[in-house]
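Anyone able to model this chain together with alpha-D-galactopyranose?
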Amino acid sequence: MAFENNCKLKQVKMKRIIFSILLLSIGIVSMAQKFSNLALKPQMGWNSWNTFATEINEQVIMEIADAMVSTGLKEAGYEYILLDDGWMAMERDAKGNLVAHPEKFPSGIKHLADYVHSKGFKFGLYNCAGTKTCGGYPGSRGHEYQDALKYAEWDVDYLKYDWCNTDKLNPAEAYITMRDALFAAGRPVLFSICEWGNSNPWEWAGEVGHSWRTTGDIYDCFNCEFNHGTWSSWGVSKIIDMRNNDTLRKYSGPGHWNDMDMLEVGNGGMSFDEDQSHFMLWSLLNSPLILGNDIRKMSQQTLDVLTNKEVIAISQDELGIQGFKHTTIDSVNVWVKPLKNNEWAVCFLNRSTTAKQIEFNWEGTTFEDQISAIKAVFTKDNIFNIRDIYQKKNIGTTKKPLKISLNKYQSLTVRLTK
Ligand code: GLA
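re: yes, here you go
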């Protein structure tokens, strides 16, 4: 009897232990999350795609890293160097591991990551939730945990995760699987969701990634659509109109940003005015600032746009509130963004193909952010100083109407301070 009781006790204890292990493992699984404390401000960096497409190699990337330092871009805040599609061999190895493309990256990815880190940057890679990437290289589907371990082994800090060849995959589930795989691998990785906005990622991705593309691919023009046959890529002004930014802006904030795609500044398809407006709008709308030009060969004008500290300060403002369109006067959009210390950024953008002259009368105007309830009422007693942040000079106060002359797609952006 005593022996039987003893056996039963042991069985009960055993069951309890198994149950606890089960609970613990469920606990561990459900504790999986995205890495916090990353992208608390819209991420800044450089990505290979817009200039090089899949024609990348380790020499070019090392030269870009060097140029990011020597041109002052690093000092201006650009932090990540990212390889887009085309870095892998066409096949996984015998064990199913991703391998670097042998001709383009003969020294391997870890070697390149070490180089990029030695220059003071963080390093990132691209892959895809589907069976193959958009360029036809091995995708992560079915290899998510294995790939995440490989990234950790290579000291990868950033993953852009695309959406080609996904067949009937559920986007939220596919991205959660990769998020969990990265978390399980243990090395903090900024997770950049590139699903093009088709499944309203802003509604589910806040807990999954640090940014999500809201739109299809950008094209190097201000106001065109480039038709590839089955899909199109889009100019700057198409992207800012494509999803209603006023609806999306409530999803944007520290650690989770609406991503309007990488920058085309300096790639030659746009005038100086257009490049400047493009950079400004991405800053005002909290989109990640990921450069896409050849840093080794850019003009001084391009460098000036990309390193304008006063524009970058609008992007990186601590409040992290996405700007919004306040009004339109004779084809000139007035975009505003609340900033710390009750300051405001105001961008006047000429959407017309002809030059425009307008007067903006501050008195009687109210800027009100419906989300944060931050408000500015311009009256005779509530006067702000106006600073032109392109020219970097003060240009008066809100006491008098502002006279604005803008060429086609040109913008004027001011910071209002007390
Ligand atoms: C998709 C993405 C682009 C780029 C390419 C690579 O089109 O949206 O940003 O990564 O794939 O093939």
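The domain at 324-417 is CATH 2.60.40.1180 (Immunoglobulin-like).
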